[in-house]
């Protein structure tokens, strides 16, 4: 059994918890998730099964979409609702819809974020959350991320109250902390803020409506219908450029052959999927580091 399982991760579970349970349900060890989803966040968690674990890293690189809620008025240690309150200020002013929309527009495109202390980013060989749990504050490396779309999911024309809450939808690049984005929205409005709710609605090409719960996976495993609902390994590579080759050349690719870079992909600096005429992904190639005009396989998918 192999392929991609779009799993609905419920709240209260870690991504590792999901993999642990699936290994028991499917009675196989070769299972991997495609990037951590916080315990307080539910939604889409693509799971790679069998040979599809080879492409997990490329799924992790793909963009994601979320629907969430920001609360203006107080911030927390974790930047979400699970943390302790750090700063609290009663909201004394009323914000118009246009003011909120202007902030969301300002935070769209390429922005710079500093990861929260309660995150899995490594500094000096340790995860930031390891420092945070000991009460140690360390300097955190900022990173550039891309917010492709940031939409207000609230039809009010004015926002007021001692705390203000509104929902949003965001599509973003790998490495984006939506918790931090919520804090940044508050900063732009002049108040402490945190992310009070979050659901991942899409990861790569997998949508929340395509997902199965762990209970549904167990049921389908029991009646033998699970293999039919797994997505092909190739679906994890839809966001990458493709290069189609003949079956004859495909045999050489399986043995790790170096290939000329196709003219249409000369300016592509990232991974390239080499596929056969049936659409099967044979290997992932990258520009050769020493030989100009050539590309070499970084991962052979079919042998």
TrEMBL record:
CDD domains: PseudoU_synth_EcTruB. Its EC number is 5.4.99.25. The keyword tRNA processing applies. It comes from the Bacteria. The active site is at 38 (nucleophile). Pfam families: TruB_C_2, TruB_N. The keyword Isomerase applies. Residues 179-237 form the tRNA pseudouridylate synthase B C-terminal domain. GO terms for molecular function: tRNA pseudouridine(55) synthase activity. It catalyses: uridine(55) in tRNA = pseudouridine(55) in tRNA. Keywords: Isomerase, tRNA processing. Residues 23-178 form the Pseudouridine synthase II N-terminal domain. HAMAP family: TruB_bact. Belongs to the pseudouridine synthase TruB family. Type 1 subfamily. NCBIfam families: TruB. Responsible for synthesis of pseudouridine from uracil-55 in the psi GC loop of transfer RNAs. This is tRNA pseudouridine synthase B.
């Amino acid at each position: 059994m192999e392929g991609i399982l779009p799993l609905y991760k419920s709240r209260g579970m870690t991504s590792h918890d999901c993999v642990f349970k699936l290994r028991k349900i499917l009675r196989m060890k070769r299972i991997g998730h495609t990037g951590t989803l916080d315990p307080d966040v539910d939604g889409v968690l693509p799971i790679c099964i069998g040979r599809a674990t080879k492409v997990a890293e490329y799924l992790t690189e793909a963009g994601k979409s979320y629907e969430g809620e920001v609360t203006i008025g107080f911030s927390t240690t974790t930047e979400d609702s699970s943390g302790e309150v750090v700063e609290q200020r009663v909201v004394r002013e009323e914000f118009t819809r246009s003011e909120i929309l202007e902030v969301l527009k300002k935070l769209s495109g390429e922005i710079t974020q500093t990861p929260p202390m309660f995150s899995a980013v490594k500094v000096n060989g340790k995860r930031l959350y390891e420092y945070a749990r000991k009460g140690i504050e360390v300097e955190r490396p900022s990173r550039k991320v891309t917010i492709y779309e940031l939409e207000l999911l609230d039809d009010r024309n004015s926002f007021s109250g001692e705390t203000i809450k509104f929902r949003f939808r965001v599509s973003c690049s790998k490495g984006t902390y939506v918790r931090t984005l919520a804090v940044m929205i508050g900063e732009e409005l002049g108040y402490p803020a945190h992310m009070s709710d979050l659901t991942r609605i899409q990861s790569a090409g997998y949508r929340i409506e395509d997902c199965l719960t762990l209970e549904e996976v167990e049921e389908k495993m029991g009646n033998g219908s699970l293999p039919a609902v797994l997505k092909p390994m190739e679906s994890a590579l839809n966001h990458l450029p493709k290069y189609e080759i003949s079956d004859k050349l495909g045999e050489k690719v399986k043995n790790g052959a170096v290939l000329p870079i196709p003219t249409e992909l000369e300016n592509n600096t990232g991974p390239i999927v080499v596929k056969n005429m049936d659409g099967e992904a044979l290997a992932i190639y990258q520009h050769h580091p020493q030989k100009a005009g050539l590309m070499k396989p970084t991962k052979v998918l079919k042998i």
